[in-house]
Amino acid sequence: MYTRCLVCATPFEANDQLEHLPNGRRLAFDPSRGRLWAICRTCRRWSLTPIEERWEALEELEKLTRDKARLLSKTDNIALLRVGPLEIVRVGRAELPEELYRPHYRLTVDEPDDLVLMGRIFDRLYRSGFVLSTADAIRLLDEEPALAAINAHITHAAHNIRSVKLDNPS
After folding, report:
1. CB neighbour class for 158 (10 Å; exposed up to 12, middle 13-18, buried from 19)
2. Are 90 and 78 within 8 A, CB to CB?
3. Which DSSP string do the residues of 52-119 spell out, in sequence order?
4. Using CA atoms in the order 91, 94, 95, 99, what is the torsion angle rounded to 10 degrees?
5. Integer distance in angstroms from the first to the last C-alpha of the chain?
6. Structural domain boundaries of the chain?
């Protein structure tokens, strides 16, 4: 694994979060394409890790971001996350297991009623030391349809409607 930026040769900072990627505190990965980069804090360029060294690190990084990361910002295809000292860019659409796919639920905060729903989900599920997951929120909405109704009147953005139709052509 690289210890320095491939562009400017600045050393990557050590991290103690990832056994298979011990260098770099600013990382990016695309799990669907099997790509993993260390991002230089000096020149901000991305150094692609060697293919023979990235698979275990990718699995480890995916699990770490799924289980422990705090979402800082997100678009449809990019998410910025933080786990301890690590800043992580996740490239690609976040995938849910098929059994959790509910395109009619709005698990986003774009409108005031979205914020009300998130607050109610948080009130019902929060426990100290427990990380709330999307799966937990979906199960709660399945069990309590009145909660999902809080923001059900809000129309999804046109690109999201098109995406849902493409996912479910029936």
Report:
1. exposed
2. yes
3. HHHHHHHHHHHHHHHHH-EEEEE-SSEEEEEETTEEEEEESPPP--GGG--TTS--S-SSHHHHHHHH
4. 170
5. 46
6. 1-95, 98-165
| pLDDT, position 35 | 92
Neighbours of 141 (CB within 10 A): 21
Measured distance CA(54)–CA(111) in Å, rounded: 39
The three-class DSSP label of residue 148 is helix
Tell me the C-alpha distance between 41 and 46, whole Å.
10
Q: What is the pLDDT along the chain (170 residues), one digit of tens a residue?
A: 789 999 999 999 999 899 999 999 999 999 888 999 999 999 999 999 998 878 899 999 988 988 888 888 777 688 889 999 999 999 987 666 677 778 888 888 888 999 999 999 999 998 887 767 788 899 999 999 999 999 999 886 654 544 455 555 45
168's tokens: 């479910």
